[in-house]
């Protein structure tokens, strides 16, 4: 059974490209970098890649830019050059919570996001009830976000994302958030999502990635490689083998 009621299915969002196209996203000559006190940090360097419609893990060492890559796909950040085309509606990065307004409460943030997506008052109230129940914040649901821990914000963001029906969900470490009961709820939610949507998932838990993903993207020093075989992808990642034939 889904965690939302049958009378309120997640809200349908418009496709960004034509239906029937058999890819998840396309990158064309994409570059992304940041200026740091130690020089230029390259995330992507002239990357061109077509990613198939599958549940895909994103692998890479800390600091390589996995979360930045998710933000690029969600248009929360923009590439320095090149273009990114997503086939279908795409979620904000679930688990990344930079989009919350810190001075507003959890409830007020939920209302604001639901209003942006044009839910009517009845839908907003029902969504609010379900999100409050799912994220298990208790009295903190009516406390400003700036007083939340990172885990509390991730739980709220995860619950909020389930209010809307996306074609692609971007997931950043959210399956490790909360106690065992919440993690089990999150895992059940992902199993339901897989029936009608695709996942792009970042996690340092290889068992989680193997459970949900069929293939992987390996990010290393500005280059992004698609690997169809998850076992090979994990082996390369764990053994620091990032050499690919050109």
Question: Could you please describe the fold and organization of this structure?
Answer:
The chain has 246 residues and is of the alpha/beta class. The protein has a single domain, classed as Rossmann fold (3-Layer(aba) Sandwich). The chain has seven helices and ten strands. The strands form three sheets. The chain has a five-stranded mixed β-sheet, sandwiched between helices. It has a three-stranded antiparallel β-sheet with strand order 3-2-5, covered by helices on one side. A two-stranded parallel sheet has the order 1-6. Helix 5 (180-193) links the parallel strand 7 (168-172) and strand 8 (198-202). Helix 2 (106-116) crosses helix 3 (121-135) and helix 3 (121-135) packs across helix 4 (150-161). The termini are far apart. Mean pLDDT is 84; it is low at 1-19.
Distance between the termini: 47 Å
Number of E-state strands: 10
Instruction: Count helical runs.
Output: 7
Instruction: Give me the strand/helix succession.
Output: EEEEHEHHHEEHEHEEH
Radius of gyration: 18 Å
The CATH class is identified as: Alpha Beta
What is the CATH architecture assignment? 3-Layer(aba) Sandwich
At the fourth CATH level, what is the homologous superfamily?
Answer: P-loop containing nucleotide triphosphate hydrolases
**CATH fold-level assignment:** Rossmann fold
**Number of structurally distinct domains:** 1
SS class: alpha/beta
Whole-number mean pLDDT: 84
> Which outline best applies?
globular
């Amino acid at each position: 059974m889904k965690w939302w009621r049958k009378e309120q299915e997640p809200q349908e969002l418009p496709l960004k490209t034509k239906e029937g196209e058999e890819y998840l996203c396309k990158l064309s000559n994409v570059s992304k970098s940041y200026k740091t006190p130690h020089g230029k940090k390259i995330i992507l360097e002239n990357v061109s890649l077509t990613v198939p419609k599958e549940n895909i893990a994103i692998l890479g060492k800390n600091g390589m830019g996995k979360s930045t890559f998710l933000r690029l796909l969600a248009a929360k950040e923009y590439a320095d050059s090149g273009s990114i085309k997503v086939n279908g509606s795409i979620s904000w990065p679930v688990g990344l919570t930079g989009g919350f307004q810190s001075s507003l409460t959890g409830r007020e943030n939920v209302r604001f996001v639901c209003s942006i997506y044009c839910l009517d008052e009845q839908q907003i109230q029902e969504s609010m009830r379900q999100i409050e129940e799912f994220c298990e914040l208790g009295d903190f649901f009516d406390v400003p976000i700036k007083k939340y821990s990172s885990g509390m914000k991730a739980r709220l963001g995860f619950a909020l994302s389930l209010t809307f029906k996306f074609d692609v969900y971007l997931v950043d470490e959210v399956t490790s958030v909360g106690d065992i009961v919440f993690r089990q709820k999150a895992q059940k939610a992902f199993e339901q999502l897989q029936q009608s949507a695709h996942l792009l998932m970042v996690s340092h838990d290889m068992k989680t990635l193997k459970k949900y993903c069929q293939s992987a993207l390996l990010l290393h020093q500005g280059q992004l490689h698609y690997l169809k075989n998850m076992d090979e992808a994990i082996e390369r990642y764990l053994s620091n083998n990032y050499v690919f034939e050109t």
